[in-house]
Amino acid sequence: MKQAMVILNPSSGHEAAIDYKEDIVSVIKEKGYEVVVKETEKKDDATVFAEEAVNDGYDYVIGVGGDGTINEVIAGLARYDQQPLFSFVPFGTVNDFARAIGIPLKPRDAIEWLKEARTEQRVDIGKINERYFVNVVALGAVAEATYEVGVEQKTRLGPLAYYIEGAKTLAENKVYPLTFKLSDDTIDEEAFLVVIGMTNSIAGFEKIATDAKLDDGYMHVFIVKKLAGFDLMTLLPSVLTGEFKDHEKVRYIKTKEIQIESMASLHTNIDGDEGEDLPLHLTVLPKHIRLLRK
Ligand SMILES: Nc1ncnc2c1ncn2[C@@H]1O[C@H](COP(=O)(O)OP(=O)(O)OP(=O)(O)O)[C@@H](O)[C@H]1O
């Protein structure tokens, strides 16, 4: 019989994920799999379980949790050439990967979706130094601000908590001197924010990387330059209208590889969690994950 491993973060979705464990297991059983459930207790458990699934020859791995958990499961699979199929049920605050794929964000609907998921699509992920990213890498003022969002604030306000912290940094308008090295060009820019997306959904906004596809082989880099007084009045709406990449204060680069360096000390945010420090080397791993979708 085919073997499936469900990797579930019981703390995700304000501790709601655990309530759906039995329903998820039934759906996978109906698909003809023998199911083992692994519950995470701390950071990186999901990566260890996913690696175990690969090494023990599992056929199918299902992640249950927020973008952080999905990142960790995929990081465990990504190290291997021969991988099981992968699906997930989103339980996070932002759920960018679910938005990009079209998985419903309500748990009941997502489980129905999982029931009907029968088509394999190989999707891209990104590599950043020795780590992997599925959705987005951010650096600069807004990325620094995400560390300021407390658990309680996140639980109470959801994605809004990030926007509030982000808005505070907009008022300060701090910029960082960055160097971007591409295969045929080097760009020096004083940047307020840099966002690198793999899919069309970035921080819950679905109209930033409008032409990003799950398997286009590219990452989509947005460099927001130093803003002047009235820029915000046009920049903020452009996030919603799909005109962000054409804004005069945004430089858009579509690339398979980029190196980012800076004299300044700054952090990154990878798929919503704290990430690598600079310098960064980013590449696309094209069609690297065997996503099972509708
Ligand atoms: N049992 C656990 N209790 C607390 N934290 C955990 C547990 N298991 C894993 N973690 C950590 O919690 C992190 C965040 O979880 P995840 O992204 O799944 O959920 P979330 O916080 O609800 O969603 P979001 O990140 O979208 O806000 C994971 O990256 C992991 O490091």
Automatic annotation (TrEMBL):
Q: Which SUPFAM superfamilies match?
A: NAD kinase/diacylglycerol kinase-like (SSF111331)
Can you quote a single GO CC term? plasma membrane
Question: What SMART domains does the database record attribute to this sequence?
Answer: DAGKc (SM00046)
An annotated GO BP: phospholipid biosynthetic process
Question: What InterPro entries does UniProt report for this protein, alphabetically?
Answer: ATP-NAD_kinase_N, Diacylglycerol/lipid_kinase, Diacylglycerol_kinase_cat_dom, Lipid_Phosphate_FormReg, NAD/diacylglycerol_kinase_sf, YegS/DAGK_C
Q: Which residues form the DAGKc domain?
A: 1-132
The cofactor required is: Mg(2+)
Which GO terms label this protein's molecular function in UniProt? ATP binding; ATP-dependent diacylglycerol kinase activity; metal ion binding
Q: Which UniProt keywords apply?
A: ATP-binding, Kinase, Lipid biosynthesis, Lipid metabolism, Magnesium, Metal-binding, Nucleotide-binding, Phospholipid biosynthesis, Phospholipid metabolism, Transferase
- A Pfam family: DAGK_cat
Q: Which family does it belong to?
A: Belongs to the diacylglycerol/lipid kinase family.
Q: Quote the protein name from its UniProt record.
A: Diacylglycerol kinase
Question: Could you tell me which species this protein originates from?
Answer: Halolactibacillus miurensis
